[in-house]
Amino acid sequence: MNSASTSQQVDTVLKHIKDLLSSGRLEPGERLPAERRLAAQLNVSRAHVRTAFQKLEFYGIAKTFPQSGTVVAQEKMQVLNSMIIDALKIDRYDFSSLVDVRILLEIEAVKLCARNRTEEDLTNIEAALTECESFFNTEERVNKDFAYHQAVAQGGHNPVIASLLLIITPDVLRYYQKYKVCSVPSQEVFFEHREMLRFIREHNEEGAAGMLRQHLKTLSEFSRSSNEEHFLETEVKRP
Description:
The chain is mainly α and 239 residues long. The protein is 72% helix and 3% strand. The protein contains 12 helices and 2 strands. A two-stranded antiparallel sheet has the order 1-2. Helix 5 (95-116) packs across helix 8 (159-179). The chain is elongated and about 55 Å long.
């Protein structure tokens, strides 16, 4: 399933939750429906339901409690409806804007990772790096590359930044795959990824950030020179 379809199915879940709230079938303070049941009811995957729940949490519409599930926030109904509308509202943006946001977030993420990473984080990043290199010449190249960058973001231990990167990743991936953005030789990519990891291991925040800027320079230049803003404006419309 492509990323556009993924976004549509996540929005299907969000709209359903909004309808439940508007109709009174779901009240503030009550638990959201179980993932499995909601997935079957809406004919979407549990992963789509989980992503929708994460988006609700990000916007403060719901909160997950240990052993209690995900609960609707204790807000007035009109406030909740407005918040969900805001969560669904983003329907136009160009690739250059998307790249700018990704770079800003990743610079902070890699600096935080160099500062806060644990030995377990290093193990996870190394594993993601190995997979990225192993799948470099396959159709999984872009997915594995983003998995490496997400492992770095997770190592920063700032869940907001990591979540924001996850939110924008599907549209970035779709553009990468459709327009073949990635054309950098493997040796260059491998070197930059390994250097980032070295700086992270050494707790060198500025070194890691500098290497990330170098790593994303080609992407930034491509987005600046591209005059194809209409691609995302016309294709990434939320229903």
